[in-house]
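Researcher: Sequence recovery benchmark, item below. Answer with residues only.
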């Protein structure tokens, strides 16, 4: 086969939009296969189904656990949905004590289903599909394997009995294999046994080799750094497009911004916020410690000047209670504590400032989506945020505002710089236009993935 042309690619992921989504992995799993299929490659996306499927795609059994398979054409690529009621008919995608077992079996079922499919490349994502490169080697499958790290915090560690259950030889349970501090780790398995390891931004690729960001895995990653690269994610420019978005009140572009004002008024009305000329700051994301919402709440009293704040997110119970209390006492703050895709479009479009105080951020999509909608990012200088946001300067350079450290004062300072600039509407508008002119589409990054696959095959 000629490297790079018309490759047959299997993609394995625990979530993929529009079938399931809890975060950026679902966007990635939709839009990278779409970009690759537009380049002429064939992509099948293997994913668990979280609701029953009709069984036209046959059955796959792992250690007596039967999965029903169903195929569905989505966006140039085909989903191969694997359904097992006991493991996946539970309502949520993650958050169960036996997640390691649910996804261990899923990985084994996916490996079984795809091993005879004649794929050139198998692209696995995060710990949920971490055992696949090793499982495929055990089956003598010759496909090249990629393991993509979207988040190192979750490592799929468990009692090694899982290895026996899903058919991995115990001979692999040692320090150079899948063993990690006495447990079996599917994340480590992916890193050790894949032919290539990718993470989702160049800065995160460096950070995960250090104790601060490595979650204990930094030594393993350093050891395998010869096959590690960082490729920045893109966003799907069809789904995220202010000039055609079906969810927003008005449409706009960098050349015709008045629609953005209408989106802002509509958003203020929707949340009973006064229609005053104050910047609307928004946050959309999973409410975990990673995302730094606690830093934002601590920073609010330090913000100078008027603002309105809209938070859309769900996650940690304690954090959600704290946000609710803040919204109750702060008349300028609204909290919507649920997952709401459509509302996210209205918030991206109607806000002035988008805040991401993440403690770590492998890539981050929110800052790219917000820029696409002319909403200026204020972010912590880490991971993909550091690769996409540059500090605004008086000479017109930069596209947003950054802060270092983890302190509320540093975040408040960055927000205050943004709010101060907002009061100069001429300068603000030119920054908004600048954000909108950035290119975060999948074009360049899709090509880099295709080149990476090609280099493994040649
Ligand atoms: P992560 O993958 O760590 O969750 P990203 O910034 O890469 O973070 O991606 C988050 C994605 O999930 C974005 O598309 C964002 O709009 C979306 N999202 C997160 N929380 C919500 C929510 N509560 N409602 C709607 N969309 C959300």
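Model:
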């Amino acid at each position: 086969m000629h490297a790079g042309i018309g490759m047959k690619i299997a993609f394995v992921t625990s979530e993929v939009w529009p079938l399931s989504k809890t975060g950026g992995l679902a966007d990635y799993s939709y839009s990278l296969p779409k970009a690759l299929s537009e380049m002429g490659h064939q992509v099948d996306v293997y994913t668990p189904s979280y609701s029953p499927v009709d069984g036209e795609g046959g059955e796959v059994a792992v250690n007596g656990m039967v999965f029903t398979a169903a195929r569905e054409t989505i966006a140039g690529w085909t989903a191969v949905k694997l359904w097992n009621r006991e493991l996946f008919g539970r309502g949520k995608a993650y958050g169960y004590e036996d997640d390691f077992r649910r996804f261990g079996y899923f990985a084994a079922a996916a490996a079984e289903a795809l091993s005879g499919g004649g794929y050139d490349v198998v692209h696995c994502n995060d710990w949920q599909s971490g055992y696949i490169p090793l499982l495929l080697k055990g089956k003598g499958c010759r496909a090249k394997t990629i393991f993509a790290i979207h988040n190192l915090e979750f490592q799929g560690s468990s009692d090694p009995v899982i290895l026996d259950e899903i058919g991995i030889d115990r001979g692999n349970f040692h320090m150079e294999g899948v063993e990690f501090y006495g447990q079996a780790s599917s994340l480590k398995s992916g890193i050790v046994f894949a032919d290539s390891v990718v993470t989702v931004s160049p800065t995160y690729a460096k950070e995960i080799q250090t104790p601060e960001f490595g979650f204990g895995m930094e030594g393993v990653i350093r050891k395998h750094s010869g096959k590690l690269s960082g490729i920045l994610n893109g966003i799907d420019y069809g789904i995220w497009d202010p000039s055609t978005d079906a969810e927003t009140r008005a449409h706009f572009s960098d050349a015709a911004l008045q629609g953005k004002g209408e989106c802002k008024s509509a958003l203020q009305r929707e949340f009973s916020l006064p229609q005053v000329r104050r910047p609307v700051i928004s946050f959309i994301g999973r409410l975990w410690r990673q995302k730094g919402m606690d830093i934002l709440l601590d920073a609010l009293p330090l913000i100078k000047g008027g603002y309105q704040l809209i938070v859309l997110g769900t996650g940690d119970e304690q954090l959600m209670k704290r946000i609710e209390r803040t919204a109750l006492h702060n008349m300028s703050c609204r909290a919507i504590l649920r997952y709401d895709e459509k509302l996210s479009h209205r918030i991206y479009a109607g806000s002035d400032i988008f805040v991401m105080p993440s403690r770590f951020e492998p890539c981050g999509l929110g800052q790219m989506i917000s820029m696409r909608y002319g909403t200026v990012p204020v972010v912590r200088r880490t991971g993909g945020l550091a690769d996409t946001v540059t500090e605004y300067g008086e000479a017109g350079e930069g596209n947003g505002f950054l802060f270092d450290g983890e302190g509320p004062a540093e975040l408040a300072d960055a927000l205050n710089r943004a709010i101060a600039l907002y009061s100069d509407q001429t300068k603000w508008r030119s920054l908004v236009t600048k954000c909108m002119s950035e290119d975060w589409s999948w074009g360049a990054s899709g090509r880099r993935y295709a080149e990476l696959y090609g280099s493994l095959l040649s």
